[in-house]
Design goal:
7 helices, 202 residues
Length: 202
């Protein structure tokens, strides 16, 4: 594995990957994710089905503590856009991104939480043809004790909200994208990490 000396953290590692990536498509995989055995064949099949897509999202499964694989927020197969965004659209993993459309976009190294959604929202400024495939390409080990979400604190959540607000201001001339950002900010307050940090039902 290549060690990242220039940019610490998850965002820095992803940015290093973006810098050295070659090819027409880019995908990401986190430490608590596992690719399905036929993941790349599935990605190729999805691309052949919708070659005009700019972002392709796949289905994935969550691995429970007892080892069972259960669907995690499944999203119906189809074509989506800003007016009808698919579930999990704010996660950078479990997707293919057209490399030429995101080549000038990077992850915010100042964020420890929410860096995925800020990145994807920036991508949606340019890439709006989203195809959701029926293929399962990833398994998510949600109960990993080393997951960054388990150490997220209030400062991290404030940073996330501030970044979303800055995006809202930057994209104020794009009504559809601003509405997508607003919806995401509302959804976050029901996020398990938010409830753990600020209180409420866990």
């Amino acid at each position: 594995l290549m060690k990242n000396h220039r940019h610490p953290g998850v965002s820095g590692a992803r940015n290093t990957g973006l810098d050295i990536a070659r090819g027409d498509w880019i995908t990401f995989l986190d430490a608590d994710d596992e690719l399905a055995p036929d993941a790349y064949d599935a990605m190729l099949s999805a691309w052949r089905e919708k070659p005009q897509a700019e972002i392709i999202q796949f289905q994935h499964r969550r691995i429970t503590p007892d080892g069972k694989a259960v669907p995690r927020m499944p999203c119906g197969k189809g074509v989506y856009n800003l007016d009808r965004l698919p579930l999990l659209w704010v996660s950078s993993v479990n997707k293919l991104f057209r490399a030429d459309l995101i080549k000038d976009i990077s992850f915010d190294t100042g964020l420890r939480h929410g860096e995925d959604e800020v990145f994807v929202l920036k991508c949606l400024k340019w890439a709006r043809y989203i195809f959701v495939s029926e293929y399962v390409t990833m398994f998510y080990h949600r109960d990993n004790p080393n997951s960054l979400s388990t150490i997220t604190d209030l400062d991290d959540l404030i940073g996330e909200q501030r970044a979303l607000l800055e995006l809202f201001i930057d994209y104020s001339d794009d009504r559809a994208l601003c509405e997508a950002i607003r919806q995401r900010q509302c959804e976050l307050w029901n996020n398990p990490t938010y409830k753990r940090v600020i209180g409420g039902v866990k």
